[in-house]
Amino acid sequence: MVKPIIYITRKIPENLLKPYENTFNFRMWNETSKPVPRKVLMEESKQADGLLCLLTETIDKEFLENTGELKVIANMAVGYDNIDMESAKNKGVIVTNTPDVLTETTADLTFALLMATARRIVEANLYIKQDDWKHWSPFLLAGNDVHHKTIGIVGMGRIGEAVAKRAKGFGMSILYYNRSRKIETEKKLGATYVNFDELLEQSDYVTSLVPLTEETKHLFNENAFKKMKSSGIFINVSRGGTMDEEALYNALQAQEIKAAGLDVFEEEPIRSNHPLATLDNVICLPHIGSASVATRSEMIQLCLENLDAVYKGKKPLTQV
């Protein structure tokens, strides 16, 4: 029996593939940090039965119409806005993602980014490394408190709930806005459901944890930032497209909001001359929300389990 060909769009540890070597014939882009060129991916997909890809790959209508026997796409992410789902459905291609396994790790990063932004940790680190620390003063690099402040969580999904648990430990008041109200979450975490405008107006920290959809595209725009407190801090660990970067930059420059912590951007990667990266009151991270060794390994493992299930005629664990 001929083994199905699985094309992997980034170099991953061989030990993770070993258990499946008798099932699949793996082909892999041999770069760890550089995305596979689209031309190469298009050619490889013509022979591939399955694809293990990242958010960096655009799986659009053109791509799907030029595939051969492609049966399944295992997307190594919770979100799948890089995939044209309608075209995949029309082509009969199964799409899977990796929810759950990254929830706690991404929540850790969200709260770490919130705290680092609030307490100006990166600025303080650079202050010493640039040899600027000549004396101590009462308000030297003074930031904002986190404890007993109000956090506004936009998107109370798995990650939103995990962030709320961490906020509860800091004695924070928890507000949330979601497409639907979650009564059990409110009871369990003491969270309060409010509308979007109320959340913006009342929160000391506004966190974006929503998927990128037509409805959430530029949800955080000029109008949204104007409604936030002037002492408010904006945190985005969802998708860059949920925020209007120009509006955010202008709000920060005009001191309409105090600071921002960003793990995502509208177009990635960004360079050091990106407007937001030039501001002292913005912490920029290179989309590392789920980047712990354990979690990334679990995400790859889940992708492989989904691929394995499909080719054994079973229902994949996390089909979109």
TrEMBL record:
Entry superkingdom: Bacteria
Pfam families assigned: 2-Hacid_dh, 2-Hacid_dh_C
Class of this enzyme: oxidoreductase
D-isomer specific 2-hydroxyacid dehydrogenase NAD-binding domain span: 111-289
Keyword field: Oxidoreductase
GO molecular function ontology, one term from the record: oxidoreductase activity
UniProt-listed Enzyme Commission number(s): 1.1.1.-
Cleavable signal peptide: none
InterPro entries in the record: D-isomer_2-hydroxyacid_DH, D-isomer_2_OHA_DH_cat_dom, D-isomer_DH_CS1, D-isomer_DH_NAD-bd, NAD(P)-bd_dom_sf
Residue stretches making up the D-isomer specific 2-hydroxyacid dehydrogenase catalytic domain: 7-320
PANTHER family (alphabetical): 2-HYDROXYACID DEHYDROGENASE-RELATED (PTHR10996), GLYOXYLATE_HYDROXYPYRUVATE REDUCTASE B (PTHR10996:SF283)
Family the entry assigns: Belongs to the D-isomer specific 2-hydroxyacid dehydrogenase family.
Protein name in the entry: 2-hydroxyacid dehydrogenase
